[in-house]
Amino acid sequence: MTTRRPAEVFHPGEYLRDELAARNWSQIEFAEIIGRDKRLVNEIIKGKRGISPDTAREIGAALGTSAEVWMNLDNAYNLWKSDKDVSEIEHRAKMWTKYPVRDMTLRNWLLPSEDTKIIESQLLRHFETNRLEDAPQLAHVTAARRSDSDEEGFNPIQLAWLYRVKHIADAMPVPKYSKNKLRNALEKLTAYREYVEDLRHIPQLLEECGVRFVIVEPLPSSKIDGVCLWLGNAPVIGMTLRFDRIDNFWFVLRHEIEHALNGDGRDSAVLDSDIMGTQGEETLPDLEKKANAAAAEFCVPQAKMDDFIDRRDPIYSRKDVLRFAKSLRVHPGLVAGQLRWKTGRFRLFTNMLVSVRDEITPVSMVDGFGQVLPVQI
């Protein structure tokens, strides 16, 4: 929207002079009428003084007009006198409206600057566009849930996170991707489910399969759990660790691996938000149903999980959960996580849902949680 500047706007004293002349009133007479010093009237007429709300009311009462007329004349004149160029402010507002500039700056994805052009240049590089008006290439995506997205794809916060994952993955050298290696790697991953310490083997295992594994702390309100996207012929798995729990970690990781094995995300990145809460929803796309089923089966074989629930419901003891988890050679937190979800009793065995962040982040490509990757874009 372009703001047009009038060629000239007159001080309200000009209009007051005309009104007094039309009534054959002198400045002294008018000062007596409104009960003010004659110097005030003279300074207004000469354009040396503005009009206060009280003076506007007094002038309006004397001349039979509203006070707003004189306040508007004074405001219009003051705005006209102000010759400040606000185009840069308008441009900054446009950038802040379209993208989460402040959040990105706090995460050191953008360098702070008072120069609007520098901020714009960084945004264009981050979102890989030539103009601020252009839609980023990754804006059109597949999402498990779109409640926080617009009709065309990710919201700006999710999009900023996604491009950070992409830039980090771009800088990671990995061998040629092998779908067979990734499928065969599932057996090794299965062996890592029992002890949280074994999570440290995951990044290297995925790298050997040609999969780029990246952890980027989520931006506030992004609600992202993970993403599967492709760089050329190689998949990228990005995770947020939004819920720092062993059950959520394994479910999200296996979910994204299933997307990679199925080739999901080749045409448009697959964003997954709140995916443990989307199990069983009939409205989900088929690719999400398949990934959810694979993830749930990986965490705890579902037939055995259902049998355990049928036998123990509604009373579950800690001893029963530990014994069942040991028989499956999985961490008790995986059983607890599935049990909580399937029964809807989310207060059960919270202490079994151990943290994974300190195990997985030291051996992974991580941005956030106090770490900043020096990735050039």
Mean pLDDT: 91
Order of helices and strands: HHHHHHHHEHHHEEEHEHHHHHE
**Please, how many helices?**
17
The span between the termini is: 32 Å
Helix content: 40-55%
Give a quick account of the main beta sheet: strands, pairing sense, barrel closure.
6 strands, mixed
Strand content is: 5-15%
β-strand number = 6
* Structural class by sheet pairing and helices: alpha/beta
Strand order of the largest sheet: 1-5-3-4-2-6
Q: How many domains?
A: 3
Rg calculated over all Cα atoms: 33 Å
Molecular shape: elongated
Low-confidence stretches: 146-152
Describe this structure in words.
- The structure is a single chain.
- The protein folds into three domains: 12-81, lambda repressor-like DNA-binding domains (434 Repressor (Amino-terminal Domain)), CATH 1.10.260; 87-134, no CATH class; 156-299 and 355-367, no CATH class.
- The chain is 50% helix and 7% strand.
- The protein is built from 17 helices and six strands.
- It is elongated.
